[in-house]
Amino acid sequence: MSVEPELLALLPRLRRLARTLTGSAATADDLVQATCERVWAHAEDWVPGTRFDAWAFRILRNQWIDWARRSRTEGYPEPVDERTDLVGEWGEKRAMDKLILDDVRKAIDALPAEQREVLLLVCVEDFSYGEAAQVLGVPIGTVMSRLARARKRLNSAVEAA
């Protein structure tokens, strides 16, 4: 006996139950598909005159239980893009950051030595202008002008890259 008409009429209700059980539209669709496959494979087991919907719901529920047991050890299959609670980085952002950092590193390496020194002391080592001037043995105004020129060159180099 063909179960096709009953199964087609039951699809919205199967999906509603699956959505309730899984909490995910995609997982519910997978569960309904697996249920339909099982119903088709075992259509000869359904006894005409009994409730087809109860039989199909029991198959869906058993599929769900099997899936839930498997997922305890395998984890839940979910699209990563829909997860907001995952810790980690997007590979694209990390790659872009590395490219930008490489551009900045090259631009710093291209600076004259006196500008690199000032940049390192003030921006990396957090020296004040006065402390940097003492380390380099130059007036504070020289530190300020070298730093300004270094920043301007870096900005131009990074924008050009």
Number of helices: 7
Structural class: mainly alpha
- CATH class category name of the largest domain: Mainly Alpha
What ranges have pLDDT less than 50 throughout 5 or more consecutive residues? Answer: none
Instruction: Enter the CATH topology name of the largest domain.
Output: Rna Polymerase Sigma Factor, Chain: A
**In the CATH classification, which architecture of the largest domain applies?**
Orthogonal Bundle
Counting DSSP E segments of at least 2 residues, the number of strands comes to: 0
Beginning-to-end CA distance, first to last residue? 71 Å
Number of domains: 2
Helix content: over 70%
- Strand proportion: under 5%
Largest sheet: none
At the fourth level of CATH, the homologous superfamily of the largest domain is RNA polymerase sigma factor, region 2, helix turn helix motif
What is the 3D form?
rod-shaped
State the order of secondary-structure elements, H for helix, E for strand: HHHHHHH
> In angstroms, what is the radius of gyration?
33 Å
Summarize model confidence as the mean pLDDT. Answer: 86
